[in-house]
Amino acid sequence: MVKSLSAEVRDAAQALARGDLIGLPTETVYGLAADALNPLAVAAIFKAKGRPANHPLIVHVADASQVSKFASHVPAFAQKLMAAFWPGPLTVILPRLTGVADAAAGGHATVALRCPSHRIALALLHEAHGLGVQGVAAPSANLFGRVSPTTAAHVREAFPSLLVLDGGACEVGIESTIVDCSRAAPVVLRPGMLLLSALSEACGEVVSVSSNAPYSTHDEAPAAPGSLASHYAPQARLRLLSAEAIQEKLPNVTVKVAVWARFTLPNSVAFKHVPMPSNPAECAHELFARLRELDVSGAQEIWVEAPPAGPAWDGVRDRLQRAAN
Ligand code: TXA
Ligand code: MG
């Protein structure tokens, strides 16, 4: 018998309350979720992903009223950011209440909090809250070092026996914008689809971009640049090139090249050619699914046309630069 969505959400909430892991759809990417206050459940996330246990997780909450259960202090600029962008693709880092969510926070003195806007995520967070789950820790539901998942099928590929709520293809498509609000002024640690100017306007402060985060905010960042095993990347070599460079190099290549580009290519020059959207939101939406598709296409290399300059492309550019090798 096919279960109704509400029955599936109820089952998933009960699984979380029991200490089990589930696959959670959000508007950004799918998460590998567990009760944030259950250290054993949180340990199971780290183990399933193969992620170092000192690498902190984002805690997802049903609404902003839950923040006080995790954070010791919420500066006015953080309140304003949450008011403007929650529910939505914004994560705030706040000073953490002593002894709360130690495992999820990887022992750090701060905690990352986010209220997602996906209706199934919100329904689940509310249902789980009713069962005593105050917050849900969820990193992206991919194995450490691999491409983030934007469909339920991507999650099942990595975790075949996991209970996954199917929320369709993630609308945003790249991970949330992370803003560190634990310092005197807000600092972006990971760009997403929220514009720096919109963040600054919403909180009434100049939001800056960190050039030197205390530790990587990309769990897929290569441990040693160039070591294939740990890339935030497909298996095939990904190269980020200008349109001119692609056109110039392509006729001379000896390997199978799949091209994702905004300019039009003459037929059959590339092994495979997929048009890249010229709108950053559309591009982010399809980015991770496209990398996966091109990776299994039989191509040995994936050549991606570098995104245009400008802040609207910061999130997409960041993910592509990290995937390039
Ligand atoms: O869109 C998203 O944020 C997705 C969905 C599932 O919500 N989640 C996600 O989680 O991207 P994850 O674990 O793949 O990336 C979260 C990043 C980590 O790389 C970590 O470094 C950073 O958030 N982070 C978590 N807690 C932090 C903290 N206390 N201070 C600084 N960075 C933190
Ligand atoms: Mg991730």
Task: Describe this entry's structure for a reader.
The protein is α/β, with parallel strands linked by helices. It has 2 domains: 5-209, DHBP synthase (Alpha-Beta Complex); 237-323, Threonylcarbamoyl-AMP synthase, C-terminal domain (Rossmann fold), CATH 3.40.50. It has 9 helices and 14 strands. It has helices at 5-18, 39-49, 76-85, 119-130, 152-158, 196-203, 243-249, 280-295, 314-323, and strands spanning 22-24, 31-35, 58-60, 90-95, 110-114, 136-137, 163-164, 177-180, 187-190, 208-209, 237-241, 257-261, 272-275, 301-305. The chain has a 10-stranded mixed sheet with strand order 7-1-2-6-3-5-4-8-9-10, sandwiched between helices. Strands 11-14-12-13 form a 4-stranded parallel sheet. A hairpin with a 6-residue loop joins strand 1 (22-24) and strand 2. Helix 1 (5-18) crosses helix 4. The chain is globular and about 60 Å long. The N and C termini lie far apart (46 Å). The site of magnesium ion (MG) has 5 residues, from loops.
